[in-house]
């Protein structure tokens, strides 16, 4: 099955870090995009943020002003979920919680046409479980982008037991048409990258808990000596501790409590304190406005 036609409407649900990035990618590829969030004003705010990001590219001479305006004009906030009925592809990027995502998918199934693809940007949840109980489970797939979505090339196209292979191919071709590097994978806990990355986070957190070194030292080592793009603490601050912790819990549960995937109490404390990382202004590091640089 070929890629989605560029004139097809793409709906993105959840206007957080990932939803905003995915909406930008789809709009840059020429799609009319509608962005919806159940937090009033969040979608419009996210579109303003995208506009500012694109403005920085214009200033650097990487994008021309006309292209910026055209991309932003293709992005529309939706104030009610009912306004999303004409979508050809919905990508949900809401909270990483199985029951909440299942509830949304049930709502979307009742709302959208039968041939609309329902994709989830979930980092770890079973696509098979997300689709279970729907009338047309074949149209539910994972389309898992990485953070920040406009910059990161990889997209995992995840098939659950019931997913239609033709639709998986359509999402694969669509991701390619959007300039991404897609990979097909099955619905296994954490899929590929988040599964492989679990020990990276878990062992870094254990080292911190054992007092081997502080997080800035550990990050600097992994980055400067280890050749990683980012250390585990700056990376989880970027991802968001609520998201990263939920992913670890979901992989841990899916593997029947396998110790290798045990969630970290240090990270749970951050979540409980609302220190979610960059998005809340503080995580392992402090991102307070005016701070010369984030510090632990
Ligand atoms: P976020 O917390 O930045 O944004 C989530 C947004 O969804 C919020 O604006 C919230 O108001 C909205 N929302 C929550 N429930 C909703 C509902 N029922 N209906 C409509 N909107 C709702 O989270 P983020 O980081 O964007 O993650 C979203 C999804 O993407 C999660 O499933 C996460 O696992 C996945 N993901 C996250 C990555 C990351 O690095 N943060 C990377 C790849 C995937």
TrEMBL record:
Record's keyword terms, sorted: Oxidoreductase
Ranges where the 3-hydroxyacyl-CoA dehydrogenase C-terminal domain occurs: 190-287
Superkingdom per UniProt: Bacteria
Ranges of residues in domain 3-hydroxyacyl-CoA dehydrogenase NAD binding: 9-187
Family the entry assigns: Belongs to the 3-hydroxyacyl-CoA dehydrogenase family.
Name of the protein this chain belongs to: 3-hydroxyacyl-CoA dehydrogenase PaaC
Organism of this sequence: Metapseudomonas boanensis
Encoding gene, per UniProt annotation: paaC
Shown residues within the full chain: 1 to 296 of 504
